[in-house]
Each structure stands twice: as structure tokens, then as C-alpha cells.
């Protein structure tokens, strides 16, 4: 299950890259910016501003869609995600997020831009969601990319069985390793899981000498603490193969996505200013940490 393929990305690894977003995630981060990738199945998105009120969807699925006094209501409890309404929505207000794809279909999308990877030092980045929720699919894509001579990066939260990481290690050039929170108790509070396994897998990957970039989402008022930044600085120095810390400032994209998905309203946090981000970076560097930015 793939919920997106993004071409010409320059923010998810070196060079020009193609990002493949795989569905499913074991974490429930309170600031999640890709909620459409959590469940592992296709979902229905509704953008109210695009709705023309034509009523085509209500004729197809009257139990799900109703338009009263110009207001379009989606009864998601009765939706089986057949997506017939999507195919008949002239205004493109309804959208299917997530499609089943074969390895060959994904690879064909990736290799078409191989010349750009070669000239820019780029490649493919498998992300999500969490790619290791679909470990065999992830391995098959990575292995096929290596056979095609495509550089590979895997973005992961690290929360999966260690044996699965050992299975894919030969096919990954760079790990974009997400560190959400350094404090174990706060990690549970903010993501729903403990970070013990995540740290164990970081040591496992680093022990094999794999290139690692620590990707760290920072949310004002949540994890923008000096002690967290100091821990990130320490992590960046643990192994020579860790290139450094990449700060990922909070943005509100997940809030609007949750609205379109009809899921629980996500709390909005402060969008950090440039000065705030600079201060975060200064704390890490003053603690001896390595900070990188693409």
C-alpha cells in the first residue's frame, strides 16, 4: 500500500530524489504530518472548498454522502472505501489516498529519473508512514533499486523487530533515522510507544557502519527543551557513521490533512520562527553536536 510518490525531492537525502511513501505506522505522534499514512489502508479525503454541491456522490452512496442546504456531510462510519464517489467527483473534492502497487510499478516510477540521480548524487527515499510495517515490500523495492544502480535511503522511526533491519541492511545506503523524543517517558506520552527498541536499533545499524542522519522533528512547547537538544548532540557523536542531526521544524500540514480525513482534530502548535530554529541549532552545536541541513 503506497499513499504517494513524490518526484524531484531535495529535502530527504542527498541530491534529487524520488520519495516513496508506504502506508502503516506503529507510532501515534501527536503532531503527525502524514496522518493518511498511519492505518496501512486506503482512506477517503474530502476537501470542502472544492465541493461544487453537484450531488453525484450522494446518488452513488446516499448512506455516506448527503448535501443539505449546501453543506456536504460525510458519514465515515458507513463508508467502506469503495471510492466510487471519488471516480464521479467532478470537482475533485473527494480523493482516494493510498493505492496497492506492485514492486515493478514502484520501480518503473523510480528509474525514469535515474539520469537526475546520477548527475545530482540522488536516488530513492523510502518513507511513510513507517516502511518497516511492510518489511518484505520495502526490502523488495530496495533490492530492486540496488540492482538498477539507484542510491537508496530509508526513513524510519526505528520501531520494529531488529531482525527486520538486519534483513534490509545490505540494500540501504543511508538511514534517515527519526528521533522524536530522547526522554523515554515523554516518548510514550507523545508517540504512544517507548523508545528503548528505537535506540537498540540505532546501535544495531550504526554497528554495521551504515550512514545515518538523525532526523528530529521539533515542536515548540513539546520537545524544544535544552536537555533534549543536549541528548541529540550526544547521539550525533556516538558513532562515526552518524553524519549529524537534521532539525525538522514543526509545520501545520497535518492539521489540515486530519480535517480532510475526518479524523480526530489535531492540536495546533506554534510554527517556529527562523530565530527559534537558529537557537535550537546553537544549543546542539554548543553541546558539541553535529548539525546538518539539506
Give start-end ranges of low-pLDDT stretches: none
The percent of residues in helical segments reads 25-40%
- Kindly estimate the percentage of residues that lie in beta strands according to DSSP: 15-25%
- The SSE order reads EEEHEEHEHHEHEHEHHEHEHH
> Structural class, judged by helices and strands?
alpha/beta
Taking the alpha carbons of the first and last residues, their distance comes to: 28 Å
How many distinct beta strands? 11
Which of globular, elongated, flat, extended, rod-shaped describes the shape? globular
The profile of the biggest β sheet is:
7 strands, mixed
CATH superfamily of the largest domain: Aldolase class I
Mind telling me which CATH architecture of the largest domain this is?
A: Alpha-Beta Barrel
Explain what you see.
This protein is α/β, with parallel strands linked by helices and 294 residues long. It has two domains: 2-39 and 99-286, Aldolase class I (TIM Barrel); 44-97, Alpha-Beta Plaits (2-Layer Sandwich), CATH 3.30.70.20. It is built from eleven helices and eleven strands. The chain has a seven-stranded mixed sheet with strand order 1-2-7-8-9-10-11. It has a two-stranded antiparallel sheet with strand order 3-6. The chain has a two-stranded antiparallel ribbon with strand order 4-5. The relative contact order is 0.15. The mean pLDDT is 95.
Amino acid at each position: 500500500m503506497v499513499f504517494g510518490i513524490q518526484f524531484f525531492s531535495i529535502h530527504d537525502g542527498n541530491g534529487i530524489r524520488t520519495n516513496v511513501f508506504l502506508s502503516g505506522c506503529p507510532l501515534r505522534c501527536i503532531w503527525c504530518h502524514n496522518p493518511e499514512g498511519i492505518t496501512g489502508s486506503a482512506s477517503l479525503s474530502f476537501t470542502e472548498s472544492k465541493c461544487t454541491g453537484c450531488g453525484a456522490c450522494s446518488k452513488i452512496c446516499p448512506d455516506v454522502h448527503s448535501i443539505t442546504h449546501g453543506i456536504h456531510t460525510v458519514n465515515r462510519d458507513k463508508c467502506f472505501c469503495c471510492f466510487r464517489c471519488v471516480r464521479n467527483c467532478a470537482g475533485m473534492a473527494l480523493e482516494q489516498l493510498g493505492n496497492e502497487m506492485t514492486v515493478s510499478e514502484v520501480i518503473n516510477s523510480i528509474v525514469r529519473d535515474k539520469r537526475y540521480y546520477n548527475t545530482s548524487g540522488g536516488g530513492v527515499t523510502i518513507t511513510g508512514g513507517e516502511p518497516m510495517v511492510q518489511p518484505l515490500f520495502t526490502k523488495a523495492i530496495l533490492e530492486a533499486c540496488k540492482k538498477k544502480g539507484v542510491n537508496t535511503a530509508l526513513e524510519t522511526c526505528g520501531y520494529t523487530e531488529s531482525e527486520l533491519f538486519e534483513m534490509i541492511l545490505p540494500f540501504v545506503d543511508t538511514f534517515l533515522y527519526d528521533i522524536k523524543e530522547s526522554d523515554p517517558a515523554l516518548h510514550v506520552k507523545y508517540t504512544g510507544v517507548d523508545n528503548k527498541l528505537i535506540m537498540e536499533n540505532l546501535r544495531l545499524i550504526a554497528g554495521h557502519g551504515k550512514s545515518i542522519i538523525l532526523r528530529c522533528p521539533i515542536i515548540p512547547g513539546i520537545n524544544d527543551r535544552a536537555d533534549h537538544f543536549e541528548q541529540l548532540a550526544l547521539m550525533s557523536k556516538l558513532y562515526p557513521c552518524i553524519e549529524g542531526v537534521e532539525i525538522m521544524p514543526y509545520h501545520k500540514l497535518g492539521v489540515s490533512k486530519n480535517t480532510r480525513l475526518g479524523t480526530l482534530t489535531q492540536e495546533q502548535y506554534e510554527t517556529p520562527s527562523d530565530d527559534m530554529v537558529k537557537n535550537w541549532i546553537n544549543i546542539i552545536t554548543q553541546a558539541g553536536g553535529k548539525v546538518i541541513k539539506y
